[in-house]
Amino acid sequence: MYLVSISIIFGLIKLLKNGFLHKFRVARFPFYSNDSPSKRKVVYVYSPQYTETCDSLSKVPNRASMVHSLIEAYGLLQHMSVVKPRVATSEEMAKFHTDAYLEHLHKISQDGDNDDPQSGDFGLGYDCPVVEGIYDYAAAVGGATLTAAQCLLDKRGEVAINWAGGWHHAKKDEASGFCYVNDAVLGILKLREKYERVLYVDVDLHHGDGVEDAFSFTSKVMTVSLHKFSPGFFPGTGDLCDTGMGKGRWYAVNVPLDDGIKDDRYFHVFTSVMQEVQALFNPEAVVMQLGADTMAGDPMCSFNMTPVGVAQCLGHVLDWHLPTLLLGGGGYNLANTARCWTYLTGAVLRQTLASEIPDHEFFTEYGPDYSLEISPSCRPDRNETKQLDKNNAIRHV
Ligand SMILES: [Zn+2]
Which residues take part in binding a divalent metal cation (predicted)? Predict the structure, then answer.
């Protein structure tokens, strides 16, 4: 699938090029031009209350605290502007979500009613359990991503980080895959207030379906998602041939991958696609979702990545020197997720981090090695072993 993917993506991108290359303008941001490479202005959205609210998410309990505590323990906060997030208003969330969905979420949030007969219509239940205060959680996450995006608009930072955001599956009228609010969509819409073309890059294990759906009809937002694509694997979308619709045709790029992919191959695929995307779409701002369920050791047990490979991909995007909003996402091995996002924060700040996990509140979660590194497992790379089949398949395309 890997070779076929690249071949077809380049074919699609050529069509894209023919369609709108003439519309390109060269965008330059004066405040970057004299920057020393060692002084990237980074905003980090955080408050104790926000972290506590995010900790309550039943699928990733205490993850927000673990991530923040490790970032703090490595002394990274002193290199960033720490900005307190605000809470999103219902009007702000309604820029994407329907009033009916938000009103229902608000209603059931009062007492955590899991038995409301209407909830099923809004995707609430099995995968997205209803708990008391779920509306407040959604407003907090949405507000934090809007805060981060606003910091980019105000040039308070060139990079803004909300590791507790990145809930890319939520639809306008439906919760999905643990996502109650699509803060990534809200962040993109906020950046669109100033920037003509916004690029969304999603390296979570799962297809970024909610974000792709939100912008599938527009040429102003290009979405790129690299993900596992396999029969029965959630959410089941993100095939190569899904490229957007109407005016948005060719502005959605999907890179389906198989199990076992490791850093080197992933980086090769990523850069091959992103070089073309950047040259052809010429984005003015970027939102990148960095879900950590691709890590070796994640219970999803699919990809075989380490933070080093993801950091290389992130570095490729940051080298464009565009206003960039970084979001979290999946990541169900909580310690590995904290390792990954801490390592990425260090990479953004160009800080080298010691291998030994520093002593802090969650230190015991990092045993038995108490090391920042994640070692890939010895599982086979299915993208590699299928190459002969792929070569044959290419001849038939
Ligand atoms: Zn995921």
Answer: 204, 206, 293
The catalytic position among 97, 104, 169, 227 is 169
DSSP conformational letter for 355 = S
Ligand 1 centre distance from Cα of residue 22 (Å): 36
Cα–chain center distance at 324: 12
What are the C-alpha distances in Å from 267 to residues 200, 209, 258, 296, 343?
A: 17, 22, 15, 15, 17
Query: What are the Cα distances from residue 174, in Å, to 104, 121, 262?
Result: 10, 8, 33
Tokens for 201, please give them: 């890059």
For 88, which DSSP code? P
Residue 100's CB: how many other CB atoms inside 10 A? Answer: 13
Q: Which of 154, 101, 99, 149 is nearest to 286 (CA)?
A: 149
d(CA 122, CA 162): 26
**Does the model's pTM come out above 0.70?**
yes
pLDDT in tens, 46-61: 999 999 999 987 789 9
Task: Find the 158 Cα to ligand 1 centroid distance in Å.
Answer: 26
Residues contacting residue 225 through CB under 8 Å, at least 6 positions apart: 202, 204, 207, 208, 211, 212, 238, 253, 254, 255
Amino acid at 371: S
Report the alpha-carbon distance of residue 286 to residue 33 in Å, rounded: 18
